[in-house]
Every structure is written in structure tokens, then in C-alpha cells.
């Protein structure tokens, strides 16, 4: 049950409650808030466990969930049940992962569709949203425990390069953790706010935010004017970070001690020890000139800062090339950058700090803790949204989410609540049945996962889509909300150009009390809503799988053996039987079974048709 602070005399949502700021990181996460007395942001350190919570989730044999430092210890001893770097999977389809799918030590389900990835742990299937929610729940509990008050609202940060679907996934994770996500803001924007840049509406500045974390690097160039943060350019490498610096040290020690790399890889205990020592050495070298230790008195672990800098020089140079690229994309020179901000634990490495300061021709800002700066800025944004900063003008925002109905009666949000207006956003859809020529677009307003609980604003049919196989048409649905609060919804099929639009005024006939009630309902029903959404999504995946396999059998059945056909039919029937079970794990297990059994067929049929095509070709 989500806890909500309610003012008992008026029945309204308690206004003075704390709103926290959350940095949901790939490697580490943390939560911060504004101290009620000195009004300064501070990171929460519950029970002296430190402010940083490693973004690692471990599932125990007993079915319990552990998050943070304790979970991190299972990375080597029980990798299949220990999930790290889940942020990399948020809002991504299996196809998006491409060559990086082998990076993960746990099982990622390949349902071979454009659907979002899922992770299999034993007999349970988790979406990256659920796993991220576990981390957020832990942060929320720590905040509640430390502040001794319910925490229901938050601002969560995401990288500037996150797309709509990744941002929506982050919102959903917050919701599942029982948090009302007031706003999703960019990490570089948060870092800037933490340094007090962009708080005053009169300020006009162009800044660079350099963020080197555990496994990712990004550089963002922001233009700030009238309290608006505009991303001019981003660049980086989502597979480059502090872990790579550690690896350089490990390789150096392997060489120095004349160890064999393969033996180390096989010895889990030793490789883990080496990793821990290397990270310790790296951190020590950020302030000391030398590091000396050993492993079990046998392996000498010694390195000087000079040697370390020589080893990591190429990595640092790569990040500077990204800075160059970002600046050139923004059509700016280093002199035009007013301030440079350092974010992420790895910017503590002196060589990194010096290289960045030198490139931009000015000392970079690093006076705030680089691990905490994003969460601190998120807390400031939360405070602004709470209306606690009277000096800051709040821009007009949409009070409720605007979206459309998708498969199974689900709400797909296009413009999230609290977005500044005017704004526009869009998403691409396709058909689910071969030869489908019409598509119904139903526009809704509200926070619930099922459209039937939301307010319907408009509905129209996009007619005249040329008959094509399912999944081929590309229908762009765009929402354009102008400064007067009028929403224009347009749908265009890109291959044929057929187009249809409608205009509505979402706020028409809606009182503040109704808006408040809708928000309250979405919080109290969050859990059941998300659960219902996941069952519907699993069922939709299952239905599409059944449809695809049945079409395949019809067209290509002659290339399969009788046994293969009958096994496929059995597995299809099993899937059909569980579609209405209401249990997502049961459905996804049947999908996984059918997928694993039939996936070799597609390739075989392709080979046969290539051969036939070749044989049919007559060369004169
Ligand atoms: P993320 O944003 O990806 O979650 P963080 O910003 O928390 O990551 O950065 C984590 C990385 O910072 C790790 O690789 C860690 O080893 C590194 N780090 C932390 N402290 C130091 C230090 N004193 N010197 C060098 N690197 C450090
Ligand atoms: Mg970070």
C-alpha cells in the first residue's frame, strides 16, 4: 500500500511533505532532500551506511530481494541471481541491445520482437522497470527511515540522451516503487542546479557537464536562458567508465606478477580480489602518489600514480575527443563555455580533472562531491516544484498526463504530467494484424495504467492505410500542446502519407479538485495498476507470438518435419491455454519455450528460399 500524507481537517494531500531528489545511476544510486532548517540539499546517509547505494539487486534462494552493498557481494558468487547495470536495459528492446547483449552475466530473454527486454531469474521474469523499482524502493525506505516521515514524491534524474521510452520507463519504475514522480530531469541539468547555475530566471549561460561514472561517460553542452535548460549537444560512450580504469590496473598487475590471464579468469575468487584491489588502488591514487598491497601474501599489488596515468592516458584522451565533438556539434568553441562541471566518481582522478580543465581553458567546478552532485540538484528541483522557492517563477505545466490507448486497453503516455507548455511529443506505432487498413486513435488524460480509469478526450480513425503485413506500416502520432492549452493530435502513416488530426482542450470542464482526486487515485492504485499492465503486456506478447507462429506454419509448414510441426502446435496450444491465466510469469514462460523451440526454423526457411532463388536464376 502506498502511504499518502493527508491533511485530516481538509482531506487534501499534505503540502509540507518532503519531496526527494533521486539519482538512479548505472553503478550507484542515491537520494537527497532539502534540509528544512538551512535549506541546503543534503544526501541521505541512513544508519551510517554511506550516501551511495550500489545499483545492484540480488534475489536470494528464499525469494527475498537485497539491494546495495550487500547485493554487490553476490556478483561473483551468484551472478545469475544478481542484477547490475539494469539502467542500461531500461526502455530498450532486445534489438536495441545489439552486440552488447553478452555484457550481462544474467539471462536476458530474447522474444525476438520489438517488445521491451525482460530478465529471467529462475522461474520469474522481471522487466528492467521492476528491477529499477527495487532500487528506488530501497532509496525510498532509507529516506523514510532517516527522515522519519513518509516519502511519496520524487524528482528522478536521467541522462540527457535518454529517449521518451527510457524516460517513461523511469517514471513507471518510480510509480511501482510507490513514488509520484513529479518530474524527470536531465542529470546535467541537476548538476548545474546543484552549483546554483540556472536557478535565477535572469541568468543566461552556456555550460559543459562532464560525467564519468562507473561504466558510462557523457558530455553535455547546455544553454540556460529564462530558467530553461536546453541541451545543445551530447556525446559520450555508454561503455566507458571507471571500470575501464580498474581493468588497466588489473592487466598491469597480471603482467608485473607474470600471471596467466586465463587462469585468473577461471579463478572467480582471485579475479574478484584483483578487481577490488584495483578499484582501491585507483581511489587511493586520486590523493596519494603510490599504492602498495598484496593478495594472500602471494601477489604484489603495487602501482605509482605516474604509471597509472600512463596506462589511462588513452582512455582520458578518448573522452576529450568526445568533448571536442560535442562542442563542434553545438557550434561553439571552448572560450564560449561559461562553466565546466565535473560529475561522477571517476572525475576524482587528477589526470581527468586536469585534462578537462585544460581542454576548456578554465578550472572545472569540482567543489561539490561528484558522486552526490546529481542527487543534490534533483533535490533542489524538487524544492522548486514544491513551491518552496518563492523567488522562482514556475512555468505553466500540464497537470495530467496526455496519451493514447494501445493494445489491451493500456494507456501509453505521450506528454507526461508536469511538462512545461508549450510542448510537443510523439511516438511511432504499427499495425498488429496483416492487411490492417484502419487504426483507431483514442486520446486520454490521466495517470492510471488502464485507459478505462482515465478521461477520454477524443477519438478518430486513421483510414486508408495501404494493406501491408503486420508491423510494416509506420504511424507517427504527434501531440502538440500550445501555450493556450489546446492539444492537437495528428496521426500520419509515413509510407503512404495518409493523415488525420483532431483538436481538443484537455483542461475544459476539469476542476482542481478533480485533478487532485485523479492524482490521489493513481497513487493509491499504483501497485494494482502496474501489475495489471504487466499481465496485459505479457498477454499481448503471447498473442502476437501465437499469431506469428501460426502464420509461419501456414506459409512454411512444408519445410518442417511432422514432429516439428506437432511439437510447435503443442507449444502454441500451451501458450493459448495460459494466455488468460492472469499470471505474467506463466505466460512469459510459455512464450520463452515456444520461442526457443521455433527460433531455428526461421533461419532454415531463409536458407531454403535463398537456395531456391539461386537455383531459379538462369545464367545465359
Ligand atoms: P554512475 O553514475 O555510473 O552510477 P558514479 O558516478 O557513482 O557512477 O561513479 C562510480 C565510479 O567512480 C566507480 O568506477 C568508482 O570506482 C569511481 N570512483 C569513486 N571514487 C573514486 C576516487 N576517489 N577516485 C577515482 N575513482 C573513483
Ligand atoms: Mg551518474
What does this protein look like?
It is a single chain. With about 625 residues, the protein is α+β, with helices and mostly antiparallel strands. The chain has four domains: about 20-195 and about 370-385, ATPase, nucleotide binding domain (Nucleotidyltransferase, domain 5); about 200-365, ATPase, nucleotide binding domain (Nucleotidyltransferase, domain 5), CATH 3.30.420.40; about 400-520, Sandwich (Substrate Binding Domain Of DNAk, Chain A, domain 1); about 530-615, Substrate Binding Domain Of Dnak, Chain:A, Domain 2 (Up-down Bundle), CATH 1.20.1270.10. The chain is about 40% helix and about 25% strand. The strands form seven sheets. Strands 1, 2, 3, 4, 11 and 12 form a six-stranded mixed sheet that branches. A four-stranded mixed sheet has the order 15-14-13-18, sandwiched between helices. A hairpin with a 5-residue loop joins β24 (about 475-480) and β25. It binds adenosine-5'-diphosphate (ADP) and magnesium ion.
Summarize the structure.
38% of the residues lie in helices and 24% in strands. By secondary structure, the chain is of the alpha+beta class.
Portion of residues in beta strands equals 15-25%
Q: What do the pLDDT scores average to? A: 89
Assign the CATH superfamily of the largest domain: ATPase, nucleotide binding domain
Count of discrete domains = 4
List the helices and strands and how they pair.
Blueprint: E1 19-24, E2 28-34, E3 41-43, E4 53-54, E5 57-59, E6 65-67, H1 69-72, H2 74-77, E7 82-83, H3 94-97, E8 107-109, E9 118-121, E10 124-126, H4 128-147, E11 153-158, H5 164-176, E12 180-186, H6 187-194, E13 205-212, E14 217-225, E15 228-237, H7 242-256, H8 261-266, H9 268-285, E16 290-295, E17 299-304, H10 305-329, E18 339-343, H11 350-360, H12 373-385, E19 402-406, E20 410-415, E21 423-429, E22 439-445, E23 455-462, E24 475-481, E25 487-493, E26 499-504, H13 512-524, H14 526-556, H15 562-578, H16 584-616
Parallel strand pairs: 1-11, 11-12, 13-18
Antiparallel strand pairs: 1-2, 2-3, 2-4, 5-6, 5-7, 8-9, 9-10, 13-14, 14-15, 16-17, 19-20, 19-22, 21-24, 22-23, 24-25, 25-26
Helix pairs in contact: 4-5, 6-12, 7-9, 7-10, 10-11, 14-15, 14-16, 15-16
Amino acid at each position: 500500500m502506498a502511504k499518502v500524507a493527508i491533511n485530516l481537517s481538509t482531506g487534501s494531500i499534505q503540502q509540507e511533505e518532503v519531496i526527494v531528489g533521486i539519482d538512479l545511476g548505472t553503478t550507484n544510486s542515491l537520494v537527497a532532500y532539502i534540509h528544512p532548517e538551512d535549506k541546503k540539499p543534503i544526501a541521505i546517509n541512513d544508519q551510517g551506511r554511506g550516501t551511495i547505494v550500489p545499483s545492484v539487486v540480488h534475489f536470494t534462494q528464499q525469494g527475498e530481494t537485497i539491494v546495495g552493498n550487500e547485493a554487490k557481494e553476490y556478483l561473483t558468487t551468484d551472478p545469475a541471481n544478481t542484477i547490475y547495470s539494469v539502467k542500461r536495459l531500461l526502455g530498450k528492446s532486445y534489438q536495441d541491445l545489439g552486440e552488447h547483449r553478452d555484457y550481462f552475466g544474467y539471462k536476458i530473454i530474447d522474444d525476438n520482437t520489438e517488445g521491451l527486454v525482460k530478465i529471467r531469474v529462475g522461474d520469474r521474469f522481471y522487466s528492467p522497470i521492476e528491477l529499477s523499482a527495487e532500487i528506488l524502493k530501497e532509496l525510498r525506505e532509507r529516506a523514510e527511515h532517516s527522515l522519519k516521515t513518509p516519502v511519496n514524491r520524487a524528482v528522478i534524474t536521467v541522462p540527457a540522451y535518454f529517449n521518451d521510452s527510457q524516460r517513461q520507463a523511469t517514471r513507471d519504475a518510480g510509480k511501482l516503487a510507490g513514488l509520484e514522480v513529479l518530474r524527470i530531469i536531465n542529470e546535467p541539468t541537476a548538476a548545474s542546479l546543484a552549483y546554483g547555475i540556472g536557478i535565477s530566471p535572469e541568468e543566461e549561460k552556456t555550460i559543459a557537464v562532464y560525467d564519468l561514472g562507473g561504466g558510462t561517460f557523457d558530455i553535455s553542452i547546455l544553454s540556460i536562458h529564462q530558467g530553461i535548460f536546453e541541451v545543445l549537444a551530447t556525446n559520450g560512450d555508454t561503455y566507458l567508465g571507471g571500470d575501464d580504469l580498474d581493468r588497466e590496473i588489473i592487466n598491469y598487475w597480471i603482467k608485473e606478477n607474470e600471471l596467466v590471464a586465463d587462469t585468473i579468469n577461471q579463478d572467480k575468487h582471485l579475479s574478484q580480489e584483483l578487481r577490488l584491489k584495483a578499484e582501491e588502488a585507483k581511489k587511493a591514487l586520486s590523493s596519494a602518489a603510490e599504492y602498495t598491497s598484496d593478495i594472500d601474501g602471494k601477489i604484489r599489488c603495487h602501482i605509482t600514480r605516474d604509471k597509472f596515468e600512463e596506462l589511462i592516458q588513452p582512455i582520458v584522451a578518448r573522452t576529450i575527443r568526445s568533448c571536442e565533438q560535442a562542442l563542434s556539434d553545438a557550434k561553439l568553441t571552448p572560450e564560449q563555455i561559461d562553466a565546466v562541471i565535473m560529475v561522477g566518481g571517476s572525475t576524482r582522478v587528477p589526470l581527468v580533472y586536469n585534462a578537462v580543465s585544460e581542454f576548456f581553458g578554465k578550472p572545472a567546478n569540482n567543489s561539490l562531491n561528484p558522486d552526490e552532485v546529481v542527487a543534490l540538484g534533483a533535490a533542489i528541483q524538487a524544492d522548486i516544484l514544491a513551491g518552496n522557492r518563492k523567488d522562482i517563477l514556475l512555468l505553466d505545466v500540464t497537470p495530467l498526463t496526455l496519451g493514447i490507448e494501445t493494445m489491451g486497453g493500456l494507456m501509453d503516455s505521450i506528454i507526461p504530467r508536469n511538462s512545461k507548455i508549450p510542448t510537443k511529443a510523439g511516438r511511432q506505432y504499427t499495425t498488429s494484424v496483416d492487411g490492417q487498413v484502419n487504426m483507431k486513435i483514442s486520446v486520454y488524460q490521466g495517470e492510471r495504467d488502464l485507459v478505462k480509469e482515465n478521461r477520454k478526450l477524443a477519438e478518430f480513425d486513421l483510414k486508408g492505410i495501404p494493406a501491408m503485413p503486420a508491423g510494416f506500416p509506420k504511424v507517427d502520432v504527434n501531440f502538440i500542446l500550445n501555450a493556450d492549452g489546446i492539444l492537437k493530435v495528428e496521426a500520419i502513416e509515413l509510407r503512404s502519407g495518409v493523415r488525420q488530426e483532431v483538436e481538443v482542450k484537455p483542461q475544459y470542464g476539469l476542476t482542481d479538485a478533480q485533478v487532485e482526486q485523479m492524482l490521489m487515485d493513481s497513487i493509491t492504485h499504483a501497485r494494482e495498476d502496474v501489475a495489471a499492465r504487466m499481465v496485459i503486456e505479457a498477454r499481448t506478447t503471447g498473442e502476437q507470438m501465437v499469431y506469428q507462429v501460426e502464420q509461419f506454419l501456414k506459409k512454411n509448414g512444408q519445410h518442417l518435419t511432422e514432429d516439428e510441426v506437432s511439437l510447435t502446435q503443442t507449444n502454441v496450444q500451451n501458450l493459448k491455454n495460459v494466455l488468460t491465466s492472469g499470471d505474467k510469469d506463466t505466460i512469459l514462460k510459455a512464450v520463452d519455450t515456444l520461442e526457443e523451440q521455433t527460433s531455428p526454423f526461421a533461419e532454415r526457411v531463409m536458407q531454403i528460399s535463398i537456395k531456391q532463388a539461386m537455383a531459379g536464376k538462369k545464367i545465359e
